């Protein structure tokens, strides 16, 4: 049977509805009314004879058992389409073959769940959890990826970083498991992923003499300027720059989460280094701690995030006061001038000085000031 273009369009819509029903988990698609939405080619046909010809084609499919027309009496009338007709699919395979779509193209998430169900060597509860973390790698089937996940148990207990684990499992690709720590934890039956992410690199200049305060600096150039300045403002202050720091990362205070590199501006003693590292890793041991960065929303966001790791950290007035004066005098730059228009405003940081002085100035001026403009 040769189907007209108009009837093929109608069948295409029926297949779309079958696909949508399958995606929802329904056993079959519901019947559809015959109207301008489901078959506009018939309803909008210019001549009555054209409508009757299309209806005759539909009735032939009903007779073949491909579709069901209700009420059935409508199939015995040349103008049966004018009645309140509904159409349902009786033979999905025949309809799909007719339009050249023998099966629905499954989404990546569906194909991942199927691969996990078939190939993951784990209990059903673990499969259900892992099925929520789709991994799609170019040039690799999902079955291959799942089979590699089965090897994760062999790496349990080894002192590896998460990216090292990823590289060993996935053909040298180190970033596959980024942001998938929960998947790893589920596979290993752990509450948390046992493999730390790449450690933060903490560059530190320790002061001569005793350690009184700690100052985190946002930008590397400002850190370098500070450690070379010999400023009296930094007497007794450990100056730190965290390369690769990701805001709320508690790993900044863990042994495996951070690698510390000390500046050679002057030689620090083992006792002083031990004092700094004991403070860094003992959350119960607090000393005055400050942050100095750009006077913009991003800088304030970093301050807010750092308070998750260092609850007592404050914006450093010595650094921010001249920046604030600069901003209030109309010497800041518009966000668009420094490609910062995408920064999200910060409602509060938890730091009184920032919340009462810096944030209101940012809101009122709608301008920013970069840290590198100022030196100690």
Report on the architecture of this protein:
- The chain has three domains: 94 residues; 81 residues, no CATH class; 174 residues, Dna Topoisomerase Vi A Subunit, Chain: A, domain 2 (3-Layer(aba) Sandwich), CATH 3.40.1360.
- It contains 14 helices and nine strands.
- The strands form two sheets. The protein has a six-stranded mixed sheet with strand order 7-4-6-5-8-9, with helices on both faces. A three-stranded antiparallel sheet has the order 1-3-2.
- Helix 1 packs across helix 4 and helix 5 crosses helix 7.
- The radius of gyration is 33 Å and the shape is elongated.
Secondary-structure topology with pairs:
Elements: H1 5-24, E1 32-33, H2 40-43, H3 48-64, E2 67-70, E3 86-89, H4 92-98, H5 108-119, H6 124-130, H7 142-149, H8 162-169, H9 181-188, E4 200-205, E5 213-217, H10 220-229, E6 237-243, E7 258-262, H11 270-281, E8 289-292, H12 297-309, E9 314-315, H13 317-328, H14 352-365
Helix pairs in contact: 1-4, 5-7, 13-14
């Amino acid at each position: 049977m040769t189907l007209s273009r108009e009837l093929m369009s109608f069948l295409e819509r029926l297949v779309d509805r079958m696909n949508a029903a399958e995606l929802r988990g329904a056993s079959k698609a519901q019947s559809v009314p015959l109207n301008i939405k489901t078959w506009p080619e018939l309803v909008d046909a210019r001549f009555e004879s054209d409508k009757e010809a299309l209806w005759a084609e539909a009735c032939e499919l009903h007779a073949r058992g491909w579709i069901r027309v209700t009420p059935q009496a409508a199939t015995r009338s040349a103008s049966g389409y004018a009645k309140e007709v509904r159409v349902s699919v009786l033979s999905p395979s025949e309809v799909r073959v007719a339009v050249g779509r023998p099966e629905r193209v499954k989404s990546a998430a569906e194909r991942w769940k199927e691969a996990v169900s078939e190939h993951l060597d784990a209990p059903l509860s673990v499969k259900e959890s892992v099925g929520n973390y789709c991994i799609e790698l170019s040039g690799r089937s999902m079955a291959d990826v799942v089979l590699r996940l089965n090897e994760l148990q062999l790496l349990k207990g080894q002192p590896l970083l998460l990216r090292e684990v990823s590289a060993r499992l996935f053909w040298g690709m180190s970033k596959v498991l980024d942001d998938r720590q929960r998947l790893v934890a589920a596979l290993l039956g752990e509450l948390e992923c046992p493999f730390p992410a790449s450690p933060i690199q903490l560059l530190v200049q320790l002061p001569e003499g005793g350690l009184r305060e700690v100052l985190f600096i946002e930008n590397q150039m400002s850190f370098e300027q500070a450690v070379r300045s010999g400023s009296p403002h930094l007497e007794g202050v450990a100056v730190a720059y965290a390369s690769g720091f990701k805001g709320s990362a508690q790993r900044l205070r863990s042994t495996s989460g951070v690698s510390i590199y000390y500046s050679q501006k002057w030689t620090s003693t083992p006792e002083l280094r031990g004092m700094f590292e004991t403070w860094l890793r003992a959350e119960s041991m607090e000393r005055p701690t400050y942050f100095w960065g750009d006077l913009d929303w991003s800088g304030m966001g970093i301050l807010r995030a750092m308070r998750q790791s260092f609850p007592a950290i404050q914006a450093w007035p010595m650094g921010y006061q001249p920046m604030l004066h600069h901003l209030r005098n109309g010497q800041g730059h518009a966000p668009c001038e420094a490609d910062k228009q995408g920064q999200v405003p910060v409602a509060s940081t938890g730091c009184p000085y920032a919340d009462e002085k810096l944030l209101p100035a940012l809101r009122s001026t709608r301008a920013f000031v970069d840290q590198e403009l100022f030196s100690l």
